[in-house]
From TrEMBL:
<dbReference type="Pfam" id="PF05523">
    <property type="entry name" value="FdtA"/>
</dbReference>
<protein>
    <submittedName>
        <fullName>WxcM-like domain-containing protein</fullName>
    </submittedName>
</protein>
<dbReference type="InterPro" id="IPR008894">
    <property type="entry name" value="QdtA_cupin_dom"/>
</dbReference>
<dbReference type="InterPro" id="IPR011051">
    <property type="entry name" value="RmlC_Cupin_sf"/>
</dbReference>
<dbReference type="InterPro" id="IPR014710">
    <property type="entry name" value="RmlC-like_jellyroll"/>
</dbReference>
<feature type="domain" description="Sugar 3,4-ketoisomerase QdtA cupin">
    <location>
        <begin position="10"/>
        <end position="138"/>
    </location>
</feature>
Length: 139
């Protein structure tokens, strides 16, 4: 399979907006409305020990929205040439991650929840887990 040649600059933080009143906020993410792909899977990371990192892989096809549903963490994006660190700390902000990029997550605050909205079902064949292979396939 060919690895897409998207760059880190194709990823952006999208304010998916919120409905606010005196009793708090609601943020809605809805297919066909405020997300640029259809969501087929949602998963979330939590109870990540202090100092621990996650990710460390690329995807051939998977597109994602990454949201700090609680607390904060950083996402490091890497296209083989450029690296970009994005800090997420609000539930109404979603990092749109396009396919073909290496990503790592670190700097998790205590009690943080990393919610991921994903375009496809889980498929181990969609992963590249070896950074040197990632660099080779990108070039
Ligand atoms: P992985 O995607 O490598 O986690 P992270 O990038 O957060 O470090 O997945 C960790 C394990 O969980 C791996 O054995 C695959 C499994 N897994 C599923 O079975 N289904 C899923 O939807 C996800 C995201 C992971």
């Amino acid at each position: 399979m060919k690895l897409k040649n998207n760059t880190v600059y194709d990823c952006s933080v999208i304010d998916v907006s919120k409905i606010h009143n005196n009793a708090g906020n609601i943020t809605v993410i809805e297919n066909g409305h405020n997300i640029p792909f259809n969501v087929n899977r949602i998963y979330y990371l939590y109870d990540v020990p202090s100092g621990e990192a996650r990710g460390g892989h690329a995807h051939y096809e998977l597109e994602q929205f990454i949201v700090a549903a609680s607390g904060s963490f950083d996402v490091i994006l890497d296209d083989g040439l450029n690296r970009k660190r994005v800090s997420l700390n609000r539930p109404n902000l979603a990092l749109h991650v396009v396919p073909g990029l290496w990503r790592e997550l670190d700097n998790f605050s205590s009690g943080s929840i990393c919610m991921v909205l994903a375009s496809h079902a889980y498929d181990e064949n969609d992963y590249i887990r070896d950074y040197s292979k990632f660099l080779k396939y990108r070039n």
